[in-house]
Amino acid sequence: MKPAKILLVAKREYWVQLRHWSFWLVTFGLPLLLMLMGGVFLGVFLYLAGREMKNLSRTDNAPKVIGVVDPAQVVDLAALAALDEPQRDTKRDRTFRFILEEMNLPADMRRPFEQADVMMREMAKRYRYQAFTDREAGEEALRERGIRALLVIDPDYRTNFRGDLVYVSEKKQHRLPIREIEQQISRGLMRAHFDEATIDHMTEPLAGLETRFLQTEPALVEEAAPDQAAQEPQRENPMDLVLGGFFSMGMIMLVLISTNRLLMGMVEEKQNRVLEVLLSSMSAGDLMGGKVLGLGAVAFTQFLVWSMLGLLPMFMLFRGFDMSVLELVLFLLYFVLGYLLLATVILGLGSLVSNAQEAGQWTGYLILMFIVPLYGMPFVLKNPDSWFGTFCTMFPFCSPVMAAFRLGTGSLGLGEAIISLTILAATWYLALRFSAKLFRLGILMTGSAPSPLKVLKLLREA
Amino acid sequence: MILSVSAVSKSFGALKAVDNVSFTIAKGRICGFLGPNGAGKTTLIRMIMDIYAPDEGQVDLAPDLVDRDRKNQIGYLPEVRGLYTRAKVRETLLYFARLKGLSKQQARENTDFFLDRLKMTDVADQKIEKLSKGNQQKIQLISAIVAKPPLLILDEPFSGLDPVNIKMVSDLISELCREGVSIVLSTHQMNQAETFCHDILLFNKGRLVLSGELEAIIQQFSGGVLMVETVPEIPPSPLYRLLRRDGKENHIELAEDITITSFLHWLVWSGVEIFGLQPHRVPLSDIFIQEVSRHEAR
């Protein structure tokens, strides 16, 4: 091995790529395009959200109160009033809280989110009920927008079951908690015949049942022990998902672009026969090493530029990510090893072919394996310890992308990462040995690409 | 001796591309690699260049060169040319020179020297794809010699060159040889081999079928046939056999063990006036065809 020659080749590959306009187009053009698309998406979202706010505020600004005229005395208003305000802390609430409290959004961008938050809180509030002595008083309150709807129970409701639900106009209808009212009316009707305990039992007849099993089987998914859960916490910050996505997509883009560059470069050198001249000055292994190193440096440069373009605005907008230095180091290790593995295998196989079309056929399956984790990400997000997540984290051709995603979402434990990186490094070492043999044999081959059987034969001969 | 090839063989599957070949190349000599297509010349060159490893046998450089990187000691002009066509002339040459182990300074000096020597300085900053085929060929040649290696392997160095450039490249090759560079010249052009080579190696189907000093081989195949212009006629003698007489021209074949010098001494002693003497030369192309056919017939 001649390090000086490896570095010379690496340096040349690096500068040739950096001097080519396509590098700058991809490096700056792609993030700008994505930002532009994101901006358009956000703009459309804000516009639609603003319009929806206006529509909702036009629909009704009356308090969330339903008037009740109940001469038959079937609605237990006291029971309805006693119902608790629901405790709401949904994912959507947390996201709004994060956006409004943690992000440094400009005022214009902040306003639609504030309006949306107010609207969501208002929608989440319980309806209250107000008794009216007669229909006229109730309708008067409705006209004056003191209530949103009026429920009028017929005096003979217990025999004819009649009544009216009155709104101000056809356009101003609301989704009323009908089920809630119905339950109270049912209870009111039953109260004439049964005591409260019987009514409770009749309204929820299965509430007191106990669940039993004749046989018990081992659980398919073991519940995480409290200390284990503490070791591998899911991130609280919902925007960290963005980081997971950014890392995994970034990994895929970088590795695919750089390995494609590697392959195309080699096919071109093979076509213009410069490889034989190069091999008269250095060994095939040194040439392969120089190319992998040089184009890896190109990919790393691209990664730095993308990080600055993509992550800096995020750091400016958000309070920052929960990612530790260790996790960043792990990400870099996955990136470097993932690139080295794919680049090494692609160079070995690519050396056997003579044109880009054949090269694409040979490397398509490898690249497919590399991006398989993308399809399982939603599944892994819900259940990081699932077999799919674990398999993809350990399988070397999938692990860089899956690990990058799980590092972003904070669901990859250190022990798991060490095992997975060890497997990845060992696979790369084996791939290096086989690919170097193929590269030495295939690099000066001409004509059509050999069959897989022929490749195995070549490997044996090498 | 600068290069020694000992009992080297190489197979690709069932095909034996090179079969038990041995030879040496002397310092400061030009050795012709001759043979029909598929004779194994390129495979042999690639083994010398350490691109392929031989299945058997070994390739050694002179003892004073073995401590250094073998690839830095051999310049190679492949038959199928390969250059970075989108790169500029000077930067390509500097890159190849650096790959041969030259320092930046040395690479720059050598590049400028050879660009000037082959009258290419004007195009040094042009992209290679903009050059004519002949000029690209000259750039390829410079890339092989830019490191001034002690051994040079040139595979068809004159293909694609016009007569003016052939002369320029020929002069350069002769100059390098005078400076002590050993050159392997692989070619199908027998007249070029006859013009340049001191020694030849003739290959067929992976085997070395003929080797030695060019002049000795030609003389050997010419069989001691001479044309002597004399007055009067040459007297009969067991020293020679008369093949044909045409006026003053006597076409004769010398008897075995009789050299031209001793025959001339005898002519002078016999009182015959000599007006001219010309050894009859069998062209190298005839030797090539004859030997390849003989090998094929075995």
Structural commentary:
The complex is a heterodimer of chains A (462) and B (298). By secondary structure, chain A is mainly α. Chain A is 68% helix and 4% strand. In chain A, strands 2-1-3-4 form a 4-stranded mixed beta sheet. The longest helix of chain A has 39 residues, at 21-59. The two termini of chain A are 18 Å apart. Chain B has 298 residues and is an alpha/beta fold. In chain B, the strands form 3 sheets. A 6-stranded mixed beta sheet of chain B has the order 5-6-7-3-8-9, sandwiched between helices. The longest helix of chain B is centred in the middle third of the chain and has 16 residues, at 163-178. The interface between A and B is medium-sized, with 23 and 27 residues.
Largest interface (CB within 8 Å) is between: A-B, 23 and 27 residues
Number of domains of chain A: 2
Report the helical percentage of chain A: 55-70%
In terms of per-residue confidence, which ranges of chain A show pLDDT below 50 for 5 or more consecutive residues?
A: 219-233
Biggest pleated-sheet summary of chain A: 4 strands, mixed
Full CATH superfamily name of the largest domain in chain B: P-loop containing nucleotide triphosphate hydrolases
